[in-house]
């Protein structure tokens, strides 16, 4: 009721503008700092392969059969890799666009869930909760392999963008199955399913849950939705059955595939991640704010509590299913890039649960006095929790990145690396090249830093050496 009244007057519009500004405050540091991304590790591996003649589909085929099934990521690397195409200027443009699209697509997915599943008509309420979601994505952890690394962008970030846009479009299209949208959703599904294996499980499972709920609600099978789901699943299977996945797994674990153990590891990883959020962030405060916003919304639409509880229960499995393929292939190892997909799944589930609880609480409370008292109590609880929380403003990633930008850390790192690349470009082919530690810039926080190994035979050194055509590349400590 409160937010509905605000939306009808000038104060509501002012609040919306302030929220948009807040979204810019938390997202722009990542967008701007991503412009200083540099080539790292696998970027050179791809460059060396492309330079040696593995271009286009030949590149995709080679890695699909020998290392991984991520056909979308491989395709993007083959055709877009800045290290062999547009150089650092291309990487800068791509990084900025991809980081902006990441935050937009996540907000789009959250908005679609709020509007089309939870039936929150109030745009101010939806924007407020979307901000809470985006805030969690920008404040808690630096996803440096997602925003500052081209290989990570190709294999993880772009497919995740396609996933979130595809799911958001499917959700917004639940009541009106337009052919053009269904085609777009199918294409986005093909792209997302060709990303890292932490992505297609997320998409296919959530799509399956939505189709099941649509069937329960309408008492009939929706053929277009089934076709879309089949396209997503088939695309995921093309990724999963790639010979390269099994070849890579044999390197990690030669004893075979252990699905039961992977299920156990998946649950442990998810519980550990939630525990980390509880202990290391203020996410409970953020979720309480989402609950509070939902509590303040007047929702008079017919609300099927049974179906929403069923969806809430089924969503609890989303993070486990998201991380399962990773646990199956790598055990408990969860690189930074993998945590991004897992965290998005966890945030979707958490936001849904707290908003649903807020809506149900508002519907159960008839008296405005009781509702106002509960709103005040929740607000006080959030304030007390924030006051007692050790996650202060200076620990929030977007704040730290802003401070680093203002201090020139990213800019200085970038200019030093440009000098390193120029030096390597000017070395003669077939040379034994030496780089001294003091020549490299010091690693900076919240960034994917360039690195070499002290062993010249390490794969990072040899792949960079192959890219430049050197005989060897050695790092000397001083």
The overall pLDDT average reads 90
Instruction: Please state the CA-atom Rg, rounded to the nearest Å.
Output: 24 Å
Could you say which overall geometry the principal axes of the C-alpha atoms support? globular
Order of helices and strands: HHHHHHHHHHHHHHHHHHHHHEHE
> Which sheet architecture does the biggest sheet show?
2 strands, parallel
Distance between the termini: 66 Å
How large is the count of helical segments? 22
Which blocks of ≥5 consecutive residues have pLDDT under 50? none
Total beta strand runs: 2
Helix/strand class: mainly alpha
**Beta fraction:** under 5%
Portion in helices: over 70%
Spatial order of the strands in the main sheet?
A: 1-2
| Structural domains: how many | 2
Description:
- The protein contains 22 helices and two strands.
- The chain has about 475 residues and is mostly helical.
- It folds into two domains: about 400 residues, no CATH class; about 70 residues, no CATH class.
- Strands 1-2 form a two-stranded parallel sheet.
- β1, α22 and β2 form a beta-alpha-beta unit.
- α3 runs parallel beside α22, α7 packs antiparallel against α15 and α15 runs antiparallel to α19.
- The protein is globular, with a radius of gyration of 24 Å.
- It starts with a helix and ends with a strand.
């Amino acid at each position: 009721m409160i937010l509905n009244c605000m939306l009808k007057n000038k104060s509501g519009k002012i609040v919306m503008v302030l929220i948009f500004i807040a979204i810019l405050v938390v997202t722009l540091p990542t967008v701007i700092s991503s412009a200083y991304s540099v080539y790292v590790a696998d970027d050179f591996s791809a460059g060396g392969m492309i330079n040696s003649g593995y271009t286009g589909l030949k590149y995709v085929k080679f890695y699909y059969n020998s290392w991984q099934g991520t056909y979308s990521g491989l395709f993007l690397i083959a055709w877009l890799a800045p290290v062999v195409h547009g150089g650092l200027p291309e990487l800068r443009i791509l990084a900025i666009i991809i980081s902006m699209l990441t935050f937009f697509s996540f907000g789009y997915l959250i908005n679609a869930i709020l509007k089309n599943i939870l039936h929150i008509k109030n745009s101010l309420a939806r924007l407020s909760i979307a901000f809470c979601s985006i805030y969690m994505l920008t404040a808690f952890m630096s996803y440096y392999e997602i925003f500052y690394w081209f290989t990570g962008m190709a294999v993880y970030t772009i497919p995740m963008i396609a996933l979130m846009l595809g799911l958001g479009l499917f959700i917004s299209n639940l009541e009106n199955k337009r052919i053009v949208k269904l085609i777009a959703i199918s294409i986005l599904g093909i792209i997302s399913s060709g990303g890292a294996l932490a992505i297609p499980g997320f998409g296919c499972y959530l799509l399956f849950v939505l189709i099941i709920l649509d069937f329960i609600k309408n008492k009939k099978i929706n053929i277009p939705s089934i076709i879309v789901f089949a396209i997503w699943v088939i695309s995921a299977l093309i990724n999963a059955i790639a010979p390269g996945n099994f070849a890579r797994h044999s390197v990690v674990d030669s004893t075979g595939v252990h699905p039961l153990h992977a299920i156990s590891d998946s649950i442990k990883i998810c519980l550990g991640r939630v525990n980390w959020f509880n202990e290391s962030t203020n996410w409970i405060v953020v979720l309480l704010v989402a609950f509070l916003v939902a509590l303040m919304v007047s929702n008079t639409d017919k609300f099927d509590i049974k179906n929403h509880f069923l969806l809430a229960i089924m969503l609890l499995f989303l993070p486990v299913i998201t991380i399962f393929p990773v646990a199956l292939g790598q055990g408990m190892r969860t690189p930074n890039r993998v945590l991004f997909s897992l965290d998005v799944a966890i945030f979707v589930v958490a936001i849904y649960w707290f908003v649903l609880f807020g809506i149900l609480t508002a519907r159960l409370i008839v008296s405005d006095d009781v509702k106002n008292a509960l709103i005040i109590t929740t607000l006080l609880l959030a304030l007390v929790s924030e006051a007692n929380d050790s996650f202060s403003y200076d620990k929030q990633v977007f704040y730290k990145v802003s401070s680093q930008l203002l201090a020139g850390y990213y800019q200085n790192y970038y200019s030093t690396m440009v000098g390193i690349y120029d030096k390597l470009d000017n070395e003669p082919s077939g040379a034994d090249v030496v780089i001294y530690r003091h020549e490299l810039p010091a690693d900076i926080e919240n960034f994917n830093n360039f690195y070499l190994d002290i062993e010249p035979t390490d794969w990072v050194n040899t792949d960079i050496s192959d890219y430049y055509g050197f005989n060897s590349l050695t790092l000397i400590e001083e």
